[in-house]
Amino acid sequence: MHSNGDTPHATDVPNCTTDLSIEDVKQELYNRHHPSLTFLDIEAHARTIHKIRTLKQKHNVVMLGHNYMEPLVFGLSEKEEQGDSLGLSMYAANTESPYLIFNGVPFMAETAKILNPSKTVLVADKSAGCSLADNFGAEDVRHLKSLYPGAPVMIYINSYADAKAESDICCTSANAAHIAKTMPGDTLIFVPDIFFAQNLEEELRDEKNIVYPGKDNTARGAVCEVHEKFTLDDLLAIRESFEIPKRHAHRKLYAHWECRPDVLKEADFYGSTSQIMKDIAARVASNGLERAFVASECELTSNLAQEFPEVQFWTACSVRCSHMARVNLNKIANILEAIDQKDDLSEFEITLSPETIDKARTPIERMLEASV
Ligand code: 13P
Ligand code: SF4
């Protein structure tokens, strides 16, 4: 539904590039007029945010922030350091800084490490998972390859390095349809996300035979535990109670590719997190959006609400990714203090063997080359 190769998006919140006092930090936070940031949030967290920003600057740390980070964490990243999986991978590949803190889940940080192995890549919580990456491994890829000999494997970026290492090409939600079309042959194995595969199958129904776990086979696959929560009935209820009729000119219902196929069909627009943001930005720029609901992780909507105060957003904050939510200000401050004190960083550092890095880099680099 989109063009590919999204770059990270911008917010109008000034980030730290100069020496700021705690009072300056507070004032910046108040100036955001963020609908979900209260006086208490700001007073309680200003000191920690000040510490993070000071140490980030002192040690020339790149701090990548996925679009699902809660607003106070998201705002720690410079505009160009914020984005979706594709945008952040592209940014990570080219960074010169010695330290890269990835505010997201470990599979994302692994991609950064694979693309830029000489850097120290750090995450706030190494135990944070992802229901897609955690439930599918290298052995599962090998099994599917044995079922469809000769068919190339396209692996979703929400997977760990050992599974990527067994695959031909990687993709993200921003470029899956485009990348699939570049692959040779009629049949393409897509792993591990079953809903995503079904959505891709529908999108490319006249062009590719997409095979995936569970389609005429008993192979193991996975779904996103967050996006599977949205049902068609939920979306219909949202349309009715929030008054977003289908094909309304200024009211839109958005969904992420990881949603169920009937949810995606019901949405007015679907894409990656940054593609959803870009569509909203374009409609706002032409005074074309007054109300929206986004069927995705709820902090994406929190960040959208800050960036586009002219749009009425309805949030579903019971729909949070518990893995993404493990990243918080205190843990980020702990990483920076450890860097500052020259302490052991192993609690936070992403490490992969040189062999895994070598094997997993090929499918990721192929994706970046094929992305437009
Ligand atoms: P994006 O690549 O669209 O940012 O999505 C990543 C993700 O984990 C979605 O749940
Ligand atoms: Fe994984 Fe879903 Fe969380 Fe994204 S939202 S990190 S796919 S569990």
Radius of gyration: 20 Å
User: Ions, cofactors, ligands: which are bound?
Assistant: 1,3-dihydroxyacetonephosphate, iron/sulfur cluster
**Can you tell me the overall shape?**
globular
Strand content: 5-15%
Number of helices: 16
What is the average of the pLDDT values?
Answer: 92
Largest sheet: 4 strands, parallel
Distance between the termini: 14 Å
N-to-C order of helices and strands:
HHEHEHEHEHHEHEHEHEHEHEHEHEHH
How many β-strand runs? Answer: 12
Q: Strand order, biggest sheet?
A: 2-1-3-4
Q: How much helix, percentage-wise, in residues?
A: 40-55%
**What would you call the structural class?**
alpha/beta
Name the poorly predicted regions.
1-17
In short:
This protein has 372 residues and is α/β, with parallel strands linked by helices. It contains 16 helices and twelve strands. Bound molecules: 1,3-dihydroxyacetonephosphate (13P) and iron/sulfur cluster (SF4).
Structure description:
- This protein has 16 helices and twelve strands.
- It has helices spanning 22-31, 39-58, 71-74, 85-94, 106-115, 131-134, 138-147, 161-164, 176-182, 194-203, 232-241, 261-266, 273-285, 298-307, 329-340, 354-370, and strands at residues 61-66, 82-83, 99-103, 120-122, 153-156, 169-171, 187-191, 209-211, 251-256, 269-271, 291-295, 312-314.
- Strands 2-1-3-4 form a four-stranded parallel beta sheet, with helices on both faces. It has a four-stranded parallel beta sheet with strand order 6-5-7-8, sandwiched between helices. It has a four-stranded parallel beta sheet with strand order 10-9-11-12, sandwiched between helices.
- The two termini are 14 Å apart.
- The relative contact order is 0.16.
- Bound molecules: 1,3-dihydroxyacetonephosphate and iron/sulfur cluster.
- Iron/sulfur cluster binds at residues 105, 130-132, 158, 224-226, 258, 297, 321, 323-324.
- Residues 67, 84-85, 158, 172-173, 224, 256, 258, 272-273 line the site of 1,3-dihydroxyacetonephosphate.
